[in-house]
Amino acid sequence: MSNLLDFILNYEEAFKSRNRLASLYADFRNQLNTNPDGYHANIAAWKKALADAARAGVIPSQGGNTKDLLNIRTGQELARALQHPNFGQPTCLSAVFHDAVSKKEFLPLQDFLNSQESIYKTSWVPSPWAVVKWGLRTLGVLGQPGFGDKLGTGSFVVLSNVETAAEEILKQMAAQTSDVDRVLSRKDFLKRFSNVLNPISSLSPNDLNILLVHLARDKQSISYDAQTIKFKSENDQTPQPITQIDSAIANLRDQIAKLNSEIHPLEEKVATADITAREAVRNKMMTRAKAALRSKKLAESALEHRLQLVLQFGETYAKMQQAVDQVEIVKAMEASAVALKSLNNRVGGTEGVTKVVDTLRAEMDTTDEINTIINESGAPVDETEIDDEFEALERAEKEREEAEEAAKTAARLAELEQAEQQRKEKEKEREAAKDTKEEQAVEETSVRLSQMSFKEDVNPEAEKEQEKTAIPA
């Protein structure tokens, strides 16, 4: 079982059911008329499976070990890779690719690369000769079932994979604010975004060409040439063309990356030579020890040279970045100056503003004069009548205040009289309560005295005699 078939059977839900699998591998082209829903469901399942397999890097490649993640090559090699032990090769792959091309989900590779207009334009269609080339016009009528069972040879761009990769790349590049950081070489671009779709499988050079065309033509996000790629800035409507400065920046970054990649092996070589020399000395192998030390010195010299170059290139890169940023600042200042000059010209400069202000003041003075004339043309006002009316108002206000003061005084006196009346009533209540208590005390004293007098009249001796008298039987 091939890696492609193993991937589809394990990861595609539509291919996990044995009954559904039999339907997908059978000749279901006649279902277009008898069971359209089943036909389109099978077509959709195959398109998704092939797109996912391409993204996973399990589609067979045309020679070599590099797998395309954005492109599918059709032919007998693909059919054999999809051959099932029980159901054989799929019968309707030609119908699957035809449907995908007609809906612009799979695009003929050469048409995609050579087209001058965006694939998103409604007028974009693949060239007829490309369709004929891979055997989808055997009946002369596109879109009808019955085209050949044998899948023709061709290469097709999987648009969904291309769009996913492009969106992720643009998302990562959005964090780059400097124009210098938005310039990459092809090598740097492929290294940086190699695993944008798959952490295991890397983009191929063919995938790189597809991505660059899509980003430049369809997304209008980059400009590029044979060596350099430049992403547009946020302020640009369209990407700026590649300049010599851009090429120099990309080349400088490549040189820094190359030197950095050579530093670690040289460090390991120095360490290895040092260990070899020490072991040779311990073993009394002086010739070998000197050779190891000589190798160590050469490696140290080369390492030092590269470290100095890295430092020098790094400073150059920083200065270049600073210079590019300064250019952007100056451009912004120039644009601001032009805009400010245009605004000043619109108001006529200082002379124009002075003229406008003088005219405004003159018109304001004219308005005041007109207002004065209008006021003077009215009937004269008798000042004596105004004084008499004013005095009458003052008298009325004074009388009102005196009346309010008298009312307040009367209310205050009434409150004082009421308070005095309440005080007298409380005093009477206290006097009455006091008399009542005194009467009760006198009465209680009299009762006690009367009780004491009664007890003193009784003779104790008589009481004793009465107790001693015998009682007759």
Automatic annotation (TrEMBL):
Gene3D superfamilies: 6.10.140.1230. GO terms for biological process: late endosome to vacuole transport via multivesicular body sorting pathway; vesicle budding from membrane. It comes from the Eukaryota. InterPro entries: Snf7_fam. One of its GO terms (cellular component) is ESCRT III complex. This is Snf7-domain-containing protein. It comes from Aaosphaeria arxii CBS 175.79. Residues 418-473 are annotated as: Disordered. The keyword Coiled coil applies. Residues 242-269 form a coiled coil. Residues 420-440, 454-473 have a biased composition (Basic and acidic residues). It holds the Pfam family Snf7. Transmembrane segments: none annotated. The keyword Methyltransferase does not apply. Keywords: Coiled coil.
